[in-house]
Amino acid sequence: MAIKKKSGSKASSNGNRTVNKAHTNGNRNSSLRQYEIPDYRLEHPNFSVHQVRKGDEMRYEVTGDLDTPVPPIRDSKYLDKKQCIEIYRYMLLNRRMETALENLYKQGKVVGGVYFGLGQEACSCASAYALDKDDWFAPMIRNQGSLLVRGFRASDTMMQYMAKAGSPTKGRDGTSHFGDIEKRNMVSPISMLGDLIPVMSGVALGARLQGRDVAVLTYIGDGGQSTGVTYEGINFAAVQNLGLVLIVESNEWAYSTPSEMQFKCTDLAERAIGYGIPGVIVDGTDACQVYDATREAVERAHRGEGATMIEAKMMRMKGHAIHDAATYVPKPLFDFWKRRDPIARFENYLVRETKWLSAKENADLIAEVEKIIEAEREIAVNSPMPTPESALGGVYCEDGCHAIKPKYGMPKVRKGSGGFKETEAAVHLK
Amino acid sequence: MAQLTYLEAIRQGIWEEMERDPTVFCLGEDIGIYGGAFKVTDGFIGRFGAERVIDTPIAESAIVGAAFGASLTGMRPVAEFQFMDFIPCAMNQISNMVAKTHYLWGAPAPLVLRGPSGGYVHGGPFHSQNPEMWFVHNPGLKVICPATPYDAKGLIKAAIRDNNPCIFFEHKYLYRRIKGEVPSEDYVVPIGKANIVREGSNLSIITYAAMVHSALEAAEVLKNDGIDVEILDLRTVSPLDREAIAATVRKTNKVIILHEHSRTGGLAGEIAAMINEEAFDSLDGPIVRITGLDSAVPFSPPQEEFFLPKVSEIVNEARKLKAY
Ligand SMILES: Cc1ncc(C[n+]2csc(CCOP(=O)(O)OP(=O)(O)O)c2C)c(N)n1
Ligand SMILES: [Mg+2]
């Protein structure tokens, strides 16, 4: 593991925090400090996007080295054959589900738009796969694959898009905006980017007060990470040593804005240094790298060692949403990343490199996935629309609709004998 | 029964809930060893430990977000805002995350956001506000504004036990200025129930928080004029106690609505509309609003006094309304 284990860092409360040496190298008093950002990638793409003028028009242009060969998949330190095939299957399900959604949209069955994780399936699926059952996660819009890994059905997401009565939110919200705090430990996202980060930190805080160090996984984009709440949330997790596993989906674009206009540092993982937490870079199109880095972060979280930031480099291979043809994206950039399609790469790894899947087994797997998605599509399409009156109710938790109880057991609290005394101290304003 | 200040009543209420329920914990800025800017959590860290009395970074969105996340695991966080003037820094968390969560995806958020609000202490534009209306206009939240030590303690306990996100506005002018009887045995004051703090027959003043005390003062003056004032203390401003509002209007037929925050888009407008719906036929005069001005709360004492509702104003408006 590239991340050095931090010594004696189980600071369960504020106030006794040790200096985080997780990624600092050498002497704090030296005039030149060095920090480590482990980089799991087997290639280091070198190009950038700029605004250029073409006559009366402004466009984006990419310059740099775009003809480099596609690297191999990096063998996982942890995954065995069965697990690799399982992740591959989820990635297939993820992509076929989104193809089905695209078709449903074209048939006019979707309310609103459709968001795709095309090109990011390895990132969503392999990261979610690295969680244990008691861990928590919260997806962002492109992590529809993570939901499948965590046990939601494709029809759940499809019904959300179609605003059906049978959707997890019963029509009240769309896309992957739903959650489950009972079984699958998923927090529902809201549209506003970054706000899940402090929330997930709070989940880890709640669990720790109940005696459990859980990992809490969420995602943020290269665009979304510019928000102030991202800073607040990561810093909170860092200071409190909470098991946040933050995947930064560095996918070149934020709607139509290239990452060059979003931040100034070379790699977003560098931000981790400022927070005092480990930062790691992975190739987001390589499921094994994503898994390994996430698993290591999850294990750190389980040991009570705090947060980790993982930057996954990849590319959003469609527009922002279905309405957006992404004509602003320079074509060579698409070509570069098309050759790094995460599913094609993983398929090659499993069928040709490792020979863990025969061509026949692979074809059978794809056929099985297609059958599942077709059946899920049927379920989703056949769900009725909600009644108008179902807009009513549920604003408040009342009449015993939920029993609140600590998920991991009653917190053990400091024993003591009351001792409440009135206070006379001076106050801020009289 | 002990005589406690408003501040001590709140402090005791939170303390008792932390003694009673291990899932209750506090977080906020400077609330630990320092005990909070107003000392509401003074001594808590010694008794309950740093795990349950957490000094946070200066990050209001993180405070609310973390409180919400912890509540999803079944905890009951009590988050302090150093001043309620800073609550808009966490507006997105409160409005889009916390308030909508039960309606949208069925997750309860049993948390309390509390802190000092209100003027009359020369705190200036950023330490004097009453931002409760931003939250009244947010379905899914409960908004509580107590006026007395008894209610403050009973309501903070009710808020901590409630399964919904509650925003608890403490009035900093009242913190150490008023004392009242507070029972030592456990009790709660129900959220959403108003209280008649003074019975009367000629006209009603509907108000809450520090303005209850101004109304009481005005009522004493008006008594000498033979005007018998009823005062309804709302205690909770969301959800509003419609029945109590309608009942007092039906009884006295004349209403003044009194609040400290700015007039336009203020609570008085909402209550006036509610009276139209519930008790229009009972009105014998125009609904009168006495409110803060439509500006920021100015700093200099003469300006602040001019901005805020005054007892003399209440007396004058009541006389006019009685004569109407
Ligand atoms: C705080 C906030 N501002 C604006 C938006 C509108 N918006 C939605 S997605 C998006 C682009 C996000 O880009 P990025 O974070 O890189 O994620 P990606 O779409 O690339 O996965 C924008 C601007 C938003 N959801 N939240
Ligand atoms: Mg992006």
Question: What is the structure about, briefly put?
Answer:
Chain A is of the alpha/beta class and 430 residues long.
Describe the overall structure.
The complex is a heterodimer of chains A (430) and B (324). With 430 residues, chain A is α/β, with parallel strands linked by helices. Chain A has a single domain, classed as Rossmann fold (3-Layer(aba) Sandwich), CATH 3.40.50. Chain A is 33% helix and 12% strand. Chain A contains 11 helices and 11 strands. In chain A, strand 6, helix 6 and strand 7 form a beta-alpha-beta unit. The radius of gyration of chain A is 23 Å and the shape is globular. Chain B is an alpha/beta fold and 324 residues long. Chain B has 2 domains: 181 residues, Thiamin diphosphate (ThDP)-binding fold, Pyr/PP domains (Rossmann fold); 129 residues, Rossmann fold. Chain B is 38% helix and 20% strand. Chain B has a 7-stranded mixed sheet with strand order 3-2-4-5-7-6-12, with helices on both faces. In chain B, strands 9-11-10-13-14 form a 5-stranded mixed sheet, sandwiched between helices. In chain B, strand 6, helix 7 and strand 7 form a beta-alpha-beta unit. In chain B, helix 1 packs parallel to helix 7. The radius of gyration of chain B is 19 Å and the shape is globular. The mean pLDDT of chain B is 97. The chains are: A alpha/beta (430), B alpha/beta (324). At the A-B interface, helix 5 and helix 6 of A face helix 1, helix 3, helix 4 and helix 5 of B. The structure holds thiamine diphosphate (TPP) and magnesium ion. The site of magnesium ion (MG) has 7 residues of chain A, from strand 8.
